[in-house]
């Protein structure tokens, strides 16, 4: 939809616009209003180059996009009935709970193994554990590949699938070789299209492997978030979970601006399951239970939570963000009860 | 600086906090106020783990950071007198102008070669040209390595250094092998610490090679932006230019929220030159001259601009964002005049 | 706390700063750190003029505020045990539910009277109903004082207290004379200090009258929100409810950016009850039940909801935002159940 | 323009929508696209109640507004040739400079009288001076009506028109009776529609009286800002200046987020002159000259600046924000030179 700066286009402008859209196989249809005429682009308006050329015209105020820019992840695509499982839990069928440490301390493997057992007992379906870490400060601990063995040992002992963040191709290969079930793309790489393509290529054909894609740090358009998932799915494996985790600038007092509220908006555009991360959203253990419940209230399909048997002796964000297993157990019980009570509302949607 | 939730810490809390900071070689000093006591951390407070552990305590309201988290890029570091050159232009010595196409069309090399010549004539010191492109839409044109040859041919013909964006290790290697002078890290990879490390490693020892680091899409803390530069510099080559380019969420009507105004704030924290990109900030050619002048008004050291001999036949963002060589020439003249007139103000700062 | 731009102040600077703080009855205490010295202001640092004078010094990077700028509304004030009642509901003792139309249609009194009866049956404790309306468009319906009679008639029929927005002194006087129980200050007047003073003066001594203060449209500091409540309380009546209602810029797809997540942060600073308005936050009836539950999850003491027996025949925001009585009844039941289940968590806080 | 959630409306939905728009004298016209059908509202779509009713339909994704919601202030209205003068300066004809103290100290009249003389010599066209002040903290100095006499005395001595902020009807009456030339509506009252109406009513017929309307604190839609001006103009006097002054949340390091960049966007929608206030935008004297020049670069018609002969002995924001007359003089010279050099660009627009 083309909105001119003036009340209508001149005949010469109509001619120029008609020629541009014709190059992309589209036609122009004027919509004559009482005060202003606007112009519909009839055809497939999704070519960004056509949009850019039209937006480049002096006499165009703006272009309103009508069509969804993604194909596979769209709620109206054939994939809408696709089901994703993480371990024993099929998304959409009870609340998925992923829990574990922000960062695995390679010098303290027992902490992670104990945390893994404890979060399982607290009701978690899958374990999270950071092997490689993106850190703002270049002189902070950046993770250690040896932690991957600890992560997989925890998986074997608990029988739970594991989630870990990958930041480059080498991580992807090491993680998949080790048997990691869910690859996480972090917020800082949420629009790193090279990495998204590498992940998409790596998991093509691996129908049991899942990607958890965090939302970028900025409060950007939802279509940008879903398009990032489309990058991965375009290689053939649409097992992508969307993970809101708070945006910047932060809400004063929290680590980020909580964004669990985008869940219903995502669900109107995409069939992809939504797994919210309240731990990064609020950034402090004391606020996590409330934020987790709020995410369930907004209709999420899962939660990703930081937990640690002894937060003050954790590394990374754990001393600040991780809840104890006791808090986790209470939180999971309340969250699952609320999720179950909302089943009629989901069924009606 | 530790601010307790209550008016002061209890003796037991003081003991616990004292023990934590002691693990990191620091001491605690209470500041007794009329209504409230706060607690200074005496020593090097930059260890993030210490901060995280303190922030994890229930009775702590917040920690105010006093010290700069970066070392090499700090305005007060020994590197403050380091000078960076791009081709014949030393930063700080006249306004650096980088200009050229968003994207090189591999099927239309003559466009880029003509643009290069034209922007040189308009006064540019260096050429920009996109070889590989990060695109929101996975089905859009993603760039083509053959464009690298066109870029280098333009450099040879004009004698100007060239800038191109790299998104993965393979791009870095190809670009450096071809002789690219300035590697650009784009906004979507601004916090991709794997890539920052790869770039830092690749340019270590190459004293003629420069990195232009774009600001991340979110309106995040300036220390995060400077820390990203520190990642690169930590490998030995501190030739990093900081490039604000607008943030999200956008200002209605522009592509982004213009952020040239951070320039004076950056300069209070870091010695790194600031090169503003008005083209991405406002996202439409008609607004670029005003935004470029505003950036100079705010004290930037350089501009990075999209220009094209025939914008409507460009690809990528060019039909929308690129100015013509004639507009560029007028803009460069006015920008350099304003920059020169501000020399006394800079000298006084 | 004074942070200098350089690593420490010069003796002359120390002298100047000492003289300034002495004018306000304070002393300066240096905190000598390993790399940097900062300076505590010992005494009552709340005078804004002192802060402004210190921030005006060239060599000062920033001032970190330590003390709370409000006295009566502070969580640590003597008023912390004050209890506010709206009709039969004491805040903090079960979830307060306020519901009703955005706007009373003066030509259709029966709609409001039916809505009032229906929301009472759905479990509401109080009725909301707009008599005067702040509208972006000067040519839209701005309300009508005749609606005040309809509002009071609804109160008499249902026995419920009523809430209505006041925008100027005349509204305050008319509303109080008519017997309105809760005066609402809207988001656009949330920092209209003249109006806040007029309301504070008008309700001084009326211990049964309550003010519901909406949050300003911008995502501003929480201390600014609480200070606005302090304006009212300073005249003697601290019956103020804080009402988050979403901020701007909006989250794409909602009317505003939902902000129920500030509830726990408010409660750390003030004893004032928090009543969230999900209707304005999301701005569309279909999202209201989820947003209301999320607000309860975050610990609010009450909800303010738009409801209408026949939304499509309402005026103002009702066709878009109002839920039907049936939806309201389900929402209230679930919200009260969740609120009750969180009682142990509140008791522990 | 109506965008349905699904690819097209069902016949029943078309019927319902057609009936709604018909109530408001409009017709529905489907635009059949390759993938999706959208529906234009043909007629005057500006009635907010019609929009609300359409947005309230379950099957509607969103409504795209096509028409301008304001009539008098629209760039395409008959008033586009209206010219506003402040004293000897006609807006659009050379850069208007308003300068003076944030707050007049009623105990120190000589400060204001000296400042007035000094800013006149520095090139100002009009004097600003705060008589009544909106203050976040209820216990801070709130202004004093006695300052009004000092303001008018300064006007008489210098021959310059004066600007002061009004916050309630009593202020408006006192200011107009005293002969104030420009009434300022502050950011906190920018959407206080009662006050806007009172001002509009009070200045109707006073063709020499002007209103300077500051932008609201939130980064809201530009149409909302212009609609606030329309409130005033609707009473018959369209002498309204639009004043961007920075928005919240602040940019870390400044008082607000600078927003001079909205100037070209405002000018595409309205003929109203734009007068930028850099002092409140950045909030610290050292940054004001750069921000003022940036505003001129973006095409503003005037500047409103805080200045004081002795900032450290000012009250209100002056110790922090006010520039000295010497700085002001340099700033005005550079700003007017830049403004003059941009005349060809303005003429071309």
What would your notes on this structure say?
The structure is a homotetramer of 349-residue chains. Chain A is of the alpha/beta class and 349 residues long. Chain A has helices at residues 11-23, 48-55, 109-121, 147-158, 169-178, 193-203, 222-233, 263-269, 278-282, 288-297, 318-321, 325-341, 343-348; strands at residues 2-4, 27-32, 37-42, 60-63, 85-86, 89-90, 96-101, 126-129, 162-165, 182-185, 210-214, 240-243, 275-276, 302-306. In chain A, helix 3 (109-121) runs parallel beside helix 4 and helix 5 packs parallel to helix 6 (193-203). The interface between C and D is large, with 58 and 58 residues.
How many E-type strands of chain A?
14
- Which pair of chains has the greatest number of interface residues, and how are they split between the two chains? C-D, 58 and 58 residues
- Rg of chain A, Å, rounded: 23 Å
Alpha-carbon distance between the two ends of chain A: 29 Å
Low-confidence stretches of chain A: none
Number of helices of chain A: 13
Largest sheet of chain A: 8 strands, parallel
Percentage of β-strand residues of chain A: 15-25%
**Class from helix and strand fractions of chain A:** alpha/beta
Q: Strand order within the widest sheet of chain A?
A: 12-11-10-9-8-7-14-13
- Assign an overall shape of chain A: elongated
Helix content, binned percent of chain A: 25-40%
Order of helices and strands of chain A: EHEEHEEEEHEHEHEHEHEHEHHEHHH
Mean pLDDT of chain A: 93
Q: State the oligomer.
A: homotetramer
Note the main attributes of this structure.
homotetramer, 349 residues, alpha/beta, 8-stranded parallel sheet, 13 helices, 16% strand
